[in-house]
Amino acid sequence: MKINQISEQTSAGHIKAGGGFSAVYGPDGRKLSRDIKDDESTILYVQLDNELIACAALVQDTVGHYSRPDIFTLQVNRSKQLRVVYE
């Protein structure tokens, strides 16, 4: 499979501006901003309901499937340790 690369031989006419497709989504997952055209430069402003942020924080799974006490443990060695060990 050939990978396309930009090189000195690449014509500037082949590179188009835009395409970032920026958007703002609320804490409940709804899209709050309007669609932005590919060739448009703009700043997005939206109003957020602070109560939705607090509600989303309550139901958010902050540890998710990474919380696996059956396979992960944290051990702290409180004894004095050398900062550098030469082997």
Structural description of this entry:
It is a single chain. The protein has about 90 residues and is mostly loops. The protein has a domain at about 10-60. Helix content is about 10%, strand content about 0%. The protein contains one helix and no strands. The protein has one helix spanning about 50-60. The longest helix is centred in the middle third of the chain and has 10 residues, at about 50-60. The chain is elongated, with a radius of gyration of 24 Å. It starts with about 50 loop residues before the first helix and ends in a 28-residue tail after the last helix. The mean pLDDT is about 75.
Chain-wise SSE layout:
Elements: H1 50-59
Short description:
The chain has one helix at residues 50-59. The chain is mostly loops.
Task: Give me some keywords for this one.
87 residues; little secondary structure; 11% helix; 0% strand
Q: Cα-atom Rg, whole angstroms?
A: 24 Å
How many DSSP E strands? Answer: 0
Class by helix and strand content?
little secondary structure
Unreliable stretches covering 5 or more consecutive residues: none
Shape: elongated
Sheet-strand content, in percent, reads under 5%
Question: Taking all residues together, what is the mean pLDDT?
Answer: 77
